[in-house]
Design goal:
By secondary structure, the protein is α/β, with parallel strands linked by helices. It has a single domain, classed as Spore Coat Polysaccharide Biosynthesis Protein SpsA, Chain A (Alpha-Beta Complex), CATH 3.90.550. 38% of the residues lie in helices and 17% in strands. It has eight helices and nine strands. The strands form two sheets. Strands 3-2-1-4-7-5-8 form a seven-stranded mixed β-sheet, with helices on both faces. Strand 1, helix 1 and strand 2 form a beta-alpha-beta unit. Helix 5 packs parallel to helix 8. The longest helix is centred in the middle third of the chain and has 18 residues. It is globular and about 50 Å long. The two termini are 25 Å apart.
């Protein structure tokens, strides 16, 4: 098991006088207008961070709202896609944008406040000092979930055990979507070969990162249920994950 990372006392705060925005947070959105503005405000309090919102033509106008905000904030951008194309392709598009615009550290993050922006400096500190990929983990010591029902707990923990056993992953939480990549990881992995498009995308990226010889660490996070809006989890996404884990194991992806 990979030991959880303890952030040093020099973890940067939102008030540090750093002017180079070398960290990009990629946030896929679909109908997240109720959450997005406050979330962006919280992230952009940290001077080293900029944000790319990848919006799949949200009916509630999330993309248009972010585009309006971006007119007044140079560290904010939106990538608008014509329709709902899936989580995996949203992140791949965001990774390519981040690499093309010079990001040294690329983050994944949900838009629903299940991922607390206050953990961003800890993820960054671990990536700068120890690891090539840092995972915000619910299942290492100090991590956890709140407001989850029994069935959701079983699906989440069972999914991690299932992926870990089949793929031999020494990871407590390979399905979580709050993480930080060093630039070199995404440059080394052939993003054209990534096939998962639902939540198995997170498992596939962990697997490919380990196979490429990079170091992965985990930091504990508390993961609450979303504040508002509806979960994007579906039966189809769960089935895709079950199948894709075996496809990875058999070298079919």
């Amino acid at each position: 098991m990979i030991e959880p990372f303890t952030a040093p006392s020099t973890t940067p705060s939102r008030h540090d006088p750093i002017t180079v925005a070398d960290c990009t947070v990629v946030i896929p959105t679909y109908n997240e207008r109720e959450n997005i503005e406050l979330l962006l405000t919280r992230i952009l309090e940290y001077p080293r961070f900029r944000v790319l919102v990848v919006d799949d033509n949200s009916p509630d106008g999330t993309g248009q709202h972010v585009a309006t905000l971006a007119q007044h904030e140079p560290r904010l951008a939106v990538l608008s896609r014509p329709e709902k194309l899936g989580l995996g392709t949203a992140y791949i598009a965001g990774f390519r944008w981040a690499l093309a615009t010079g990001a040294q550290f690329i983050f994944e993050m949900d838009a629903d406040f299940s991922h607390d922006p206050s953990y961003l400096p800890q993820l960054l500190a671990a990536a700068e000092t120890c690891y090539d990929l840092v995972l915000g983990s619910r299942y290492v010591r100090g991590g956890g979930t709140t407001d989850w029902g029994f069935l959701r707990q079983c699906i989440s923990r069972g999914g991690n055990l299932y992926a870990g056993m089949i793929l031999g992953l020494p990871i407590a939480d390979s399905t979580g979507g709050f993480r930080c990549y060093r630039r070199t990881v995404l440059e080394t992995i052939n993003l054209n070969t990534v096939r998962s498009n639902g939540y198995s995308f997170q498992i596939e990226m962990v697997y490919r990162t380990l196979r490429a010889g990079f170091r992965i660490g985990e930091i504990p996070i508390i993961f609450p249920d979303r504040r508002v809006g509806k979960s994007k989890m579906s039966r189809r996404i769960v089935i895709e994950a079950l199948i894709n884990v075996w496809r990875l194991r058999l070298g079919l992806m």
